[in-house]
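Obj: model holo form, ligand = zinc ion.
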Amino acid sequence: MKKHLLVFALFGLCTAAVRALPQNSPVPGGIAVLDLGPQGQPTPSARWADRPLAVVSENGHWYALLGIPLDTLPGELDVAVTQGAAKRSLVVPVRPKNYPEQRLTIKDKRKVEPNPDDLARIAREQKITEAVKQRFSDAMPDTTFKLPANGPLSSRFGLKRIFNGLPRNPHAGLDVAVGTGAPVHAPADGVVANTGDYFFNGNTVFIDHGQGLISAYMHLSRVDVREGQKVRKGELIGAVGATGRVTGPHLHWAVIMNNTPVDPELLLSRP
Ligand code: ZN
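Output (holo structure tokens):
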């Protein structure tokens, strides 16, 4: 509530456009914003596919935020809601979304067809990053993000990717076209959950914003934070680079909710 008064004071007439919840987009790779009813005690909790969901308060209501996996088929998902002794099920209809295809040429062929040593390294790294993506801390997250780098958006979330003619995983983040050395800022308050130099992602920073909302910054030339460090919205965390599997320097920004990559643009505040 206090935050609203401040936003109102700062933006005056623009307040109507200020949005604190993510944009509701119940599609594969999107976020379903689920109204759990008026804000009262006890605080509700929500789960889907055996994972807890973030529950945030806004305008006197509780909302659960469901990250929908990119490979979800159109249909209905059942979210289990618990409030005190009361249990209920919320049905979430998932609409189809067809993401465009993108063909890229990578000069370093090992980044597309890794050798056995690379595959062993990739498997080790996946264990680490999977554990980071599964974190669920208590803090209620700020879900109004600021774009972490100052530049045009290039490759959007969800593109079906073909590297050197070979189909690979879809683009699970948003690219910002900025040159090596450009500053990267935290989009919201959080705690640095992990930093590392990974085979595909290059130098990477993960930030835990609370309740399973995790963001990641990849291909960095420089990392300016360390694991466990608290960061504030807008704080410098590193610099753009071209490490890992890239066609050139840019920031790859990923946002994860309930262990699911979602379209970061759904959390960006818009004027
Ligand atoms: Zn990317």
